[in-house]
Structures are given as C-alpha cells and as structure tokens.
Amino acid sequence: MDVGLFDFDLPEDRIALRPASPRDAARLLVVRPDAPEPLQDRGIRDLVSLLEPGDALVLNDTRVIPSRLRGRRFRGADSARVEIMLHKRESEDRWLAFARPAKKLALGETVVFDSEGASNACELGRLRAEVTAKSEGGEVELQFSLTGAYLDEAIARLGELPLPPYIAGKRPTDGADTTDYQTNFARKDGAVAAPTAGLHFTPELLAALDERGVSSHFVTLHVGAGTFLPVKAEDTDEHRMHAEWGTVSAETADALNAVKAKGGRIVCVGTTSLRLIESAAGEDGTIRPFSGDTAIFITPGYRFRAVDLLMTNFHLPRSTLFMLVSAFCGLDMMKLAYSHAIAAEYRFYSYGDGSLLFRADAPRD
After folding, report:
1. Contacts from 334-339 at CB under 8 Å and sequence distance 24+?
2. How many other CB atoms are found less than 10 A from the CB of residue 120?
3. Angstrom distance (rounded) from CA 226 to CA 211
4. Torsion of CA 302, 304, 307, 312, to 10 degrees
5. Residue 36: strand, helix, or coil
6. CA-CA distance, 279 to 108, in Å (whole number)?
7. What is the pLDDT of residues 239-297, one digit of tens each?
C-alpha cells in the first residue's frame, strides 16, 4: 500500500509533553466501526463500564531501561563523541543499537562510555564496546567489555532514560519521567520505549476492573527503538520491521484460550501486546506459548486471529502503528477518528490520551 495513505496533519500543540495526573484521568476515544454512532468521547476510568465480565486484559510487563549512552569512539590518536541508542539485546554481551553519527563508526572501532563521556575518566567508571557489525539506517552491533548482570549494572549507571524524540526534542528528561515513563506493573527489564497504553493504569483502576469480572494477564515484549523510526519507503511492502523479543507463557496462553472458549473477549492494552498475541496465535485463533523474536508487520488486509479489542494511544502519521490501528478498524474509520480527536483536542503520543478500538470484523451484539 502507498504509505502516503497513512499521512495526516497534526498540530504541534496536540503532542503531550506530560502525562495526565492521576494516570487514569486521561480521556478515552471509543471507536466502534459497526455502530450507528462509531465515536464516543469517554474517559480511561470508563473502561470499567465499557468492558464486560469475562473479558480479559492483556498487559505488557516490560520495564524501560536507561538505554541512551553517550561516549567517544577511538581511531588511533583521534576520537569523537558518539551517541548510542540500544534497541535489542542479542546475547549476554551484545546489543543492536542505533548510532549517531553512524557513518563515522567503522567496524572494529572501540567506543568508550563513562559518566563524563570523556577519555580520561576513572577506569572503574568506564564501559567499552567494539563495533562488530554495521547495517543500513544507522544500526550497529556492539560487543561490550562486560556481560550479563555486570553489563546491566553498567548500563543502569551510565545510561539515560530514552524519552521519545517528539518529547525529548522539546524538553529535557527529568526526575518525574523516571516514574511517569514506566507502567505501574513494569517488572522485566529490557525495553527502550514504554508500552504507553499501559501508562494509564493505576492500581485502583485494575482493582475496579477485577471487581467487574475483567481478568488481567501479563505478557512481555521488550519494545525497541525501531518503534520511533519513520517509514521511509513509499510502499508498505518495502518496509522492514525491526525484530523485538517477546514471550507468552503457557499459563497466560491457556488462560486466554479459556476466556475465548467461554465467550469472553481478548482486550490487548497496547500495540505491543497485540503484536505479540497475534504472533503467538495460530490460524484457528488458538494462542500458543511463545518465546522469541517477532517482526510482525500489520497493515490493512491482515486477518486478526485472536484479539477482539485494542486499547492504545494516538500514533504518528505514516507510522507502522497507525497502519496497525487502520488494519484493526479500517483506514477510513481511523482517519475519521483521528480527525475527531484533533478537533476535540485530545492529547497525542506517549504521554497522551487513549482510545478503545473495537475490531471492524468482530461479532457484534
């Protein structure tokens, strides 16, 4: 498909630079493609009445790590500053990353990271990495001088929280972001971007949903920095998705299959949860245990196997995520929904408001 079909104009003042407080005070646009009135302006707390007893939430419990590293590359007697954004762990001591400036990094070069970004820092405060591979688009593979938990500790000490570029370009990261940019149920370190639909949930909201009879189930997908990359191709068939690692346990798969068998609906919180569940589902809709990489790219025409509803934030124009929601509800419907959201002054992107999308081809009461 022509990528230009997924373009739209978004005023700069619609981009949220801070989240709603409290988290569940954000707005919620409900999109029902087959309803006489397909758009409803509601609030996040209305999820309790919008979902039915027997429905199941699927939440991503990944935790964002401080994955932006600043250091220097060394080539003989010459050195220069470089910024690295980790995006996918390959082994105990190797990460795929985006480098800036990438063109000046050569295979075999060493990059030194330290608390000051200077070459004369204390040896104990330094972390080294060798460039072991390069690819197009600024991606490099780095082999670090530390491994396993020691590497994790060094990244936590030297790294910075990677706010999305549309926020980081307008204000610096501060102490509030260390909690604002993590979900309340983040448990497993590995993401370099937050599963932002989950940011809306408070313990009180989850308790109210549980009392309503809506169960909660957790999966893990470590969101990569590729989620922020623009689609540069003119046709969707030419775009390459970056792989992300995820897991669906046997316990979660069995529980979700039991929900479906009893007539309940699977409600994915975030596109990350949806992509993982659809990767784990067979052609018959049965969800199986899953552990590994997924690079699933969902565009209009995709037949959803397992997911009935999707709760998600508002996405960038021409992005793979806007393509995904257009596949879920229909491109014309999502253009109408986004036009309404812009006119009604909904807040967009990671710290913005949410939407609850009913699948266009899902059965209706």
Report:
1. 334/31, 335/8, 336/38, 336/39, 337/29, 337/31, 337/38, 337/39, 338/8, 338/314, 339/8
2. 6
3. 37
4. 10
5. coil
6. 36
7. 888 899 999 999 999 999 999 999 999 999 999 999 999 999 999 999 999 999 999 99
